[in-house]
Amino acid sequence: MFKLANKIAMVTGASMGIGKEIAQVIANAGAHVICVARTEKKIYKLAKQIIHHEGSASSIVCDVSDGNSFSKIIHSTVKEYGKIDILINNAGITRDSLLMRMNEEQWDLVMDTNLKSAFHGIKAAIRPMIKNKFGRIINIASIVGITGNAGQANYSASKAGLIGMTQSIAKEVASRGITVNCIAPGWINTEMTKNIPENIKKDLLNRIPLGKIGIPEDIAYTALFLASNEANYITGQTITVDGGRIIN
What we know:
alpha/beta, Rossmann fold, 7-stranded parallel beta sheet, globular
């Protein structure tokens, strides 16, 4: 169950946190994982660790906010391996600020990395997936793309955009054997969330029915399920992995 033998997968933002864990879990399931991030040392080390544990992996340095560069590495992947089966758009950044203080650069940086990069990646991957009559596209959104969050107008908009784009593209390619889904994490214990002030952490925990912070593995195993054959009748969906936060 949930085996990915002979699959070629690409994970963006794989240098740390959720992306790193997704890459490891996907590799453990039998796929060859191409780890993509801006930090060469980190993703090289990750690929080496996966190989050390008898998995299959390689690494490519790329700033996915540069659409041309991202498209090129997908084209080169297809040229080298003959296909790309799984694309996981995980790369994301925050530039938080109240809207009246937010400048255009903060808006554009978040949009280019979180949303526009996924557009370029999916567009480049769709044609070879159609040719192969198989594809799994998984976009890592956020519950703030559903609920919004003060001080994160840019981030929330980018994640809401991912959800809308996922639904639209799912309708376009469903007949071609390609599924497109979102995962919307809640509060996950990563480098991005470790600096949350203690008083805010306490308030957040009080609003999570399960009463605990999530871990990267919670997202990674959801991604594994969506990438697997067992999820072949699921498309255009957003799965919230948040300990029940948005129901409370």
